[in-house]
Amino acid sequence: MDGRTTLSASSYSGGRPSRRISAPRGLFAIPVLALAASAFSGAFEYFDPNPWLPSPRYIGLSETTYPSQMKVSIMTLDPLSGRGPAPPLGGTFTSTLPVQAVLTFTRLGDPPQTFQCPGDIRVFMHTTSEGPPRVIQTEMLQMNLTGGTLPQGVIVRESPVLVSPGVSTIRTVQGGYMISSFFDVFTELSMDGGQTWHPGLQPMRLQGVPEPGSAAALAVGMGSLLLRARRRRSPEG
Fold it and tell me: Which of 41, 50, 82, 136 has the most CB atoms around its CB within 10 Å?
């Protein structure tokens, strides 16, 4: 590792988690948006002129702790290309996309460290309802994040033994579509170039949001979240 970082991990001797059974596998976001979105049980929607998936950006609403006492949060995950329409009703589709990520690492007793890195994800989509809204069951089949400003040998990947499920919905509105999308991603962390892996103790929730440069769309989304919060806090009657 270079002199800019002090990341390290203790050895982990625990066994690998059991495979879960499922259907066939197939610079920063605005922090306030992440905090507001996490406060709701309902899905966060954003406007897009195209009914495309995956979302143009995902923000992390939670962090993952590893047995080495390292905590990792994916602040942003941006698909760089390969987005497109969801499959027709009953259809499935699998796509591999290049991504750019911003991650924060925190070790017990140390201040957070932030890094940027490239990577790739592989996602599975299965349209189960035309709705409205249209419902697409999704799964992140693969994620590999390494390189960039990350210390040499550090890799974050989607778990090869645990399912990382998600759901997307699409509904038509005037001028475009309102889209909701999320993944609960189980990850593993390697500090030695993939020789050993530390499974995360909980999944990361990645929430889809609009294009990073869509200030107007973000404002609309925030307005919607704040309005819903006010309504939920208001007494009935």
Answer: 136
Longest dimension (CA), the chain: 61
**Number of domains the chain contains:** 1
Does residue 121 lie within any of the structural domains?
yes
Q: Which residues contact 94 (CB under 8 A, 6 or more apart)?
A: 26, 122, 123, 124, 125, 141
Q: What is the pLDDT of residues 104-148, one digit of tens each?
A: 999 888 899 999 999 999 999 999 999 999 999 999 999 999 999
Q: ∠ at Cα 131 (48, 26), nearest 5°? A: 75
Exposed, middle or buried, 76 (CB in 10 Å: 0-12/13-18/19+)? buried
| Encoded tokens for 167 | 């759901």
Instruction: Establish if 187 belongs to a structural domain.
Output: yes
For 24, 115, 162, 224, the CA distances from 176, given in Å and listed in that order, are: 31, 35, 35, 17
The residue type of 36 is: A
Determine the 3-state secondary structure of 215 from DSSP: helix
**Residue 13 CB coordination number (10 Å):** 7
Residues contacting residue 71 through CB under 8 Å, at least 6 positions apart: 63, 64, 65, 105, 106, 107
Q: Where are the beta strands (DSSP E) in 61-175?
A: 64-65, 70-79, 84-85, 92-107, 113-129, 134-146, 155-158, 165-173
Q: Which pLDDT tens digit goes with each residue over 171-205?
A: 999 999 999 999 999 999 999 999 999 999 999 99
The answer to whether residue 7 sits within a structural domain is no
Closest CA to 57 of 208, 216, 213, 229: 208
Tokens of 123: 């996602």
Residue 68: which domain range?
31-224
